[in-house]
Design brief:
- The protein has 17 helices and 15 strands.
- The protein is an alpha/beta fold and 393 residues long.
- The strands form 3 sheets. It has a 7-stranded parallel sheet with strand order 3-2-1-4-5-6-7, with helices on both faces. The protein has a 6-stranded parallel sheet with strand order 10-9-8-11-12-13, with helices on both faces. A two-stranded antiparallel sheet has the order 14-15.
Length: 393
């Protein structure tokens, strides 16, 4: 069986790393990198660190408006699918690369498998929300990370082909956390002491493209930075936007270049608190048991909020500062993101036709990152029918 995997952005590299190694032992994977993230610190370093095979196709699409970028990806991915004639197209998350891959496949009648299906912020102004909804509705297999995601799909009339498999980013954290702690020099390099700094990230268009929101968030981080060091790895796009606002560039923050996955895990696991607008960082904070403050008006990861580990504050300066000052551990107990075997389940379903039925959320006795361990996969054999690809002669 041949499977074409589409990636293009930093979070997708992490997710693909948890699946590709296992997938290649069971099927032929053709890896397509759209080039949506092309900076060395946003792309190449992730392939090196995570052991992801070099892409079979590097499309080099780069930055552009949403329509232009998605259209160019769609055009080039279609050409790859004509050439490779795969049995499946595998996509991750909610980026323009995700949508382009799903649409190109669906129009050629190639079945689509979507990892991280069913997430909803219920805010259609977010490009990511549009991408994930459309991708889910053209997918044959939908790998949902949580029971909440399964319910979201069910409300939209999607039940066939839905499997709750847990979160592949949790697989990645379990696999790489010890190595990151042992080998990353990021704390030493920036003279940081564990639990004596705040880690911040800022990149979503809803925050960076709105000058008032951007100024409010940066002003809050600056105020926090007068009390405790604030480390802010800057997305290239955010750095460019901040550069046009001199008052923000002189804020008392430690603005650094984007960091590798291992360095990011080290920074996250050792932070006193994390302030972010990233969906992936919200989850990683939860996995690592670090209090999180999210500078958005809604979140797809409701479990992190319900547990008390994550607080939604929007872009309100006073709320951000207050939440960061009061950040404290949430509740232990229910563990909704699986057991660290999501990659195994996905590969079993794709390559061997052995889906695992939806299960109840795992309850961990002590869900600290140091003690979390993977468990053996328990899969049931199930038959399901798939559409056949139609390629013009």
């Amino acid at each position: 069986m041949k499977i074409v995997t589409i990636v293009g952005a930093r979070p997708q590299f992490i997710k693909a790393a948890a699946v590709s190694r296992l997938l290649r032992s069971a099927a032929r994977e053709v890896l397509v990198h759209t080039g949506q993230h092309y900076d060395v610190n946003m792309s190449e370093v992730f392939f090196r660190e995570l052991g992801i095979p070099a892409p079979d196709y590097l499309l080099g699409v780069g930055s552009a408006s949403h329509g232009e970028q998605t259209g160019e990806m769609l055009k080039q991915i279609e050409s790859v699918l004509f050439r490779e004639k795969p049995g499946w197209v595998l996509v991750y998350g909610d980026t323009n690369s995700t949508l382009a891959g799903a649409l190109a496949a669906a129009k050629l009648h190639v079945p689509v498998a979507h990892v991280e299906a069913g997430l909803r912020s219920f805010n259609r102004r977010m490009p990511e929300e549009v991408n994930r909804v459309l991708t889910d509705h053209v997918s044959t297999l939908l790998f949902a990370p949580t029971e909440t995601a399964v319910r979201n799909l069910r409300r939209e009339g999607i039940s066939a082909g839905v499997w709750q498999v847990g979160d592949v980013m949790y697989d990645a954290v379990l696999q790489h956390l010890d190595h990151a702690r042992e080998h990353s020099q990021i704390l030493k390099r920036h003279q940081l002491c564990p639990k004596e700094y705040v880690l911040a990230t800022l990149h979503r268009a809803e925050n960076t493209d709105d000058i008032q929101r951007l100024h409010s968030i940066m002003s809050a981080l600056a105020e926090i930075g007068r009390e405790i060091p604030v480390v802010l790895p800057l997305h290239p796009r955010t750095r460019h936007l901040i550069g046009g606002l001199p008052a923000l560039t002189t804020a008392p923050l430690r603005m650094i270049e984007p960091v590798s996955y291992f360095d990011m895990l080290r920074l996250e696991s050792s932070a006193r608190c994390i302030v972010t607008d990233s969906g992936g960082v919200q989850k990683e904070a939860f996995f690592l048991r670090v209090p999180c403050v999210t500078t958005r008006d809604e979140s797809e990861w409701l479990e992190t909020i319900d547990s008390g580990w994550n607080t939604l504050v929007g872009a309100d300066r006073m709320k951000i500062v207050k939440a960061a000052r009061q950040a404290a551990p949430g509740r232990s107990g229910e563990w909704p993101y699986g057991k660290g075997d999501s990659g195994k389940q996905i590969v079993n379903i794709l390559a061997f036709g052995r889906p695992r039925p939806t299960v109840e959320p795992h309850r961990a006795e002590s869900p600290s990152a140091e003690r979390l361990r993977t468990t053996e996969e328990r899969a049931n054999v199930n038959a399901y029918s798939l559409p056949h690809a139609v390629f013009p002669a």
